[in-house]
Design brief:
112 residues; mainly alpha; 3-stranded antiparallel sheet
Length: 112
Amino acid sequence: MPAEELLTRAAAKLREIAEAATPGPWTEDITGSVQGPDRRRVVYSVGIAEGRFPRDSDRALITAMHPPVALALADLLDSYAIRTPFAGWDGINGQHLIALARAVLREEADHG
């Protein structure tokens, strides 16, 4: 699949998910739950025998990757996808963008 198509598909998926989600930014409240700007909870924190769920590190990632971040990543992917022909998909930036797109789409690299 052409790199431009891969980036465009990943950008569309990020936009779809971000636009359907509770608007951000998201923050952690005093209970450890993640909340949107209107203070509605996006992720509830619960205590379990092994500790709080989600874990502190998971909550930190969830709050960092709120919808405006996803939309910014979608814009980044689209901005490179429209640069056709892009002479540098084999370069470091191209490789990172393709890896990002594949991670979003949960697709393995083509080996052939």
